[in-house]
């Protein structure tokens, strides 16, 4: 089983991300541009990006994806710790533990 990362370590990894951008890159055939598509204010926003800018933009998009994964891992770890700290309650009785009364014929 995978070892759980400490929340502090996850936050440090998040702090090391220097570039972020939402969206995705879509190549435009053999042209000199790519489409950068993002969702903003309820609408799809598209902008053209030159081939020279694609590498830096892709690194920023990858940074955002890494950020999302790390924040999910952070939330999962905090939730796990919260659940561990809660006192255990006896579970509800199941159908097997309840006695049913037999109806007279």
Outline of this structure?
The protein is 42% helix and 19% strand.
Features:
3-stranded antiparallel beta sheet; 2 helices; 105 residues; elongated; alpha+beta
Low-confidence stretches at least 5 residues in length (pLDDT < 50)?
none
Biggest sheet character: 3 strands, antiparallel
Q: What is the global morphology?
A: elongated
Output the radius of gyration: 25 Å
How many distinct folded domains? 1
Q: What distance lies between the first and last C-alpha atoms, to the nearest angstrom? A: 56 Å
According to DSSP, the number of beta strands is 3
In sequence order, what are the helices and strands, one letter per element?
Answer: HEEEH
**Helix coverage percent:** 40-55%
Kindly report the spatial arrangement of strands forming the biggest sheet. Answer: 1-2-3
Secondary structural class: alpha+beta
How would you characterize the overall build of this protein?
The protein is α+β, with helices and mostly antiparallel strands. The chain is built from two helices and three strands. It has a three-stranded antiparallel sheet. Strand 2 (33-40) and strand 3 (43-50) form a beta hairpin. The N and C termini lie far apart (56 Å). The mean pLDDT is 87.
Sequence-ordered SSE layout with sheet pairings:
Blueprint: H1 7-15, E1 24-27, E2 33-40, E3 43-50, H2 51-85
């Amino acid at each position: 089983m995978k070892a759980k990362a400490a929340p502090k370590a996850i936050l440090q990894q998040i702090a090391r991300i220097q570039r972020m951008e939402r969206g995705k890159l879509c190549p435009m055939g053999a042209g000199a541009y790519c489409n950068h598509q993002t969702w903003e204010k309820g609408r799809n926003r598209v902008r053209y990006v030159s081939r020279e800018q694609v590498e830096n933009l892709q690194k920023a998009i990858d940074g955002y994806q890494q950020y999302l994964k790390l924040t999910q891992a952070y939330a999962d770890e905090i939730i796990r710790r919260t659940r561990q700290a809660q006192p255990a309650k006896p579970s509800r009785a199941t159908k097997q533990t309840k006695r049913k009364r037999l109806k007279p014929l």
